[in-house]
Amino acid sequence: MSINIQELKEISAKIFDFLEKNGKKELDLNNDLYWYIPNTICYDPYNIPDNKKLTLGEISSDIENLRNTNNQPIEYSLIWLASILRAAGDEMMNNKK
Q: By 3-state DSSP, what share of the chain in percent is helix, strand and coil, each rounded to 5?
């Protein structure tokens, strides 16, 4: 499976354009800590992760890392961005309830 980068950019732009058109200038992120599941077990649906392999991630650190990505491999930036977007989506879903 794959997704074209241009297509992903267009989808992302639609999402952010929609948020801005609806008055959203910032994404509320009220939870800082989250469970991080390493990629070696994250994509293995046939085995339940061992609690000892779970670690804590921190949204504030992910934001800071993204702001200073100059010396970081791009792979890390994608993971940090994903955690921030996940947290924002979760927050918006929780506020709809």
A: 60, 10, 30
